[in-house]
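note to self: dont lose this again. the chain is below, predicted strucutre after it. 707 aa total, dont forget to put it in the shared folder this time
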Amino acid sequence: MNESITTLDEHESTGRDMLSAAHVLLSSERIANEQELLVSTCVEVLSSGPAPLSAIHSGVNLIWPGAHLSIEKIENALSYAQRGGVITTQQASTGTGWALTQAGMVEIQATQSWYSDALGRLAAQIQERATQDFGGVTGEQADLWAAILLRIFSDAIITSPDAYGGAINRAASGNVRPVSLDGSQMREAINRLDSPEGTREFLGACLLAAVDESDPFGNEIVNYVATSCVLHSIVAGRSRASAQNDLGSLVGQRIVLDTPVLVAYLGPDDTAAHLTSVVRLSLELGMEVIVPQHVLNELNEVIDRVEGQHIPGLLQSLQGGVSARVYASSVNEQVLELFLEAAEAGQYRTWDDFARRARGIESELSSLGITVRGHENIARQNVDKLIVELTEVITNTSSNRGARQIARDAESMELVWRARRRSSRDQTNLWPGGWIITHDRKLSPAYRKANSRDLEPLVLSPGQWATLVTESAPAPEVRELIEAAASFLRQEAVLRIAVKYPPDIALDLAQTLSQGSVTETDIRVAQLTLVDLLDGASSGVPQNGESISTFVANKRSNRQAIAANVQRNAFVTERKRMADTVTRSVAELSVASSARATAELSALTSQTEIDRLRSERDDLEREKSEYVALNGRRTLRVTISVLGVIAAAFLFVLGLPGFAIGTIVGLFIFFNQSREWATDKGVASGRLASALPPEILGLWDIIQGLQ
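---
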């Protein structure tokens, strides 16, 4: 693709240093704490050469902005690194400076090699995925796109205005707010690129695929991006020891799990394992983890509703060849999405397996140490107030939520509010008293309206909860929690990017796309199309599965048309270059022939010389004729090869794999058989006929199919 993309700026270097520091910390035996992270960062800053303390201080704060790290803290980290043998002092004319030791240089070489290899692996994945959409891109272009994606990921942490918390005052949420991996911000960065629409669309699909843990695309790099976000939160707040001293113990802080968290626990094993880790560490820290009975009731009702309304049609469609992956990626029903993802991973054989486990989840929760009980809310006036405020918030945001669901949410909110009222009487502890763990963004605003004196958010996302525990957990457990928090952050970023559709529309979309050869980019584009469809709503565009799939198919056709045009232009350019070469050669032969004719005329006095010159001229003319003929053969060979590749690609797109394979095999035979034919005029053209049988077999495959 021939687009103009702004050259990468200094953020690329800062992002590389940030990811490299995280990589060193988590791939070594170091304890994952603030000081070790600062040591790794100082090593990255010194990779460009020795520097004084002031320059190192500026460099570290550039990599972790918002942390406002003091020069004393950096000096302590340097001294610690000096005792570890990776940094040493160095005298210079300007005073004492710091430099890497041999061990530090080895560490830098290892991280630079990892970064380069990881970026190369991302570029290779981009190149492989682009083959389906652009007919292939150059390695240089893939490298540039990989660097752009990495810059966007890094900038989401480095430049995000809500990435850093303020000072700790009344409560601890200042340590929690920094955790953010804003998917919508990253997509906006893609849309601002100075690139054609097809390229931005492809990169947007790559962005969503990279953030999605269920897709192997870009997982290595993005995992470190998310990990860096968690580490950034720690270093931008304060170390675990400092947090524990300043904020007090987490003992007695109440955690109330909402229904979506339980559904996530029933999903793929990786997510369940992360939730289990956070629950276990929360309990070890003395927190109270509760699943109210009304949340279990709601989970059972959701299972019953989905089973009655959607499962029969879904299972029938899956048996008919509908892509489970397309459906799971586009449906807005969390239960269906996670069931299909877990089933694809082999965790469940049937829906009945999933539903049976969901209905018996109480025993699993109890075995984890989670308390399952009634809400025990006595202050009914608070519950009533919360119902009123939550109803108003939901109405104002045009959201859909039934009265019974609102009442249950109000009970959960009062369950936490009660714990906060109790905690407010303890002046020695700055923690607010409890939180609801959910992705629901409506609860905190409603609670703030009901209780304006409490300024702390009522809700924590799973990623924020994991980070909260990370900042107070004992050092040996931190690495496990960082991994869990990073995983949750990626899931939350996907929620901010991906468009989800009601089950009936998602099923219609999956059925339509499954009729053709759907690509990974098509699946991702289907998750990014709602805004475009809404823009066309005034024109009467129906927002259903068929219209969305048609929209996606048109997008794919546009990308392929652009690819074909690029390939056609490349062929025309190559043909012109070859024609210019032939013209140049003919001109050179003409000059030589003219020179020899002049020599022939000047040698009329010697018949022997004349005969010799005539013989040379004849030889030269013969060589010229052979050169032109062979050049024509070479041109024809290249032309047929290029047209054969394009024809095979279109045959695959048209759903004629037999004919396409026959074309490829025939092209391979032709390419080998024509090698000698293109270099030796004496080789007859008949030997090229051996390339026809595979083509005939492919044509026979079509005839058989028609019969």
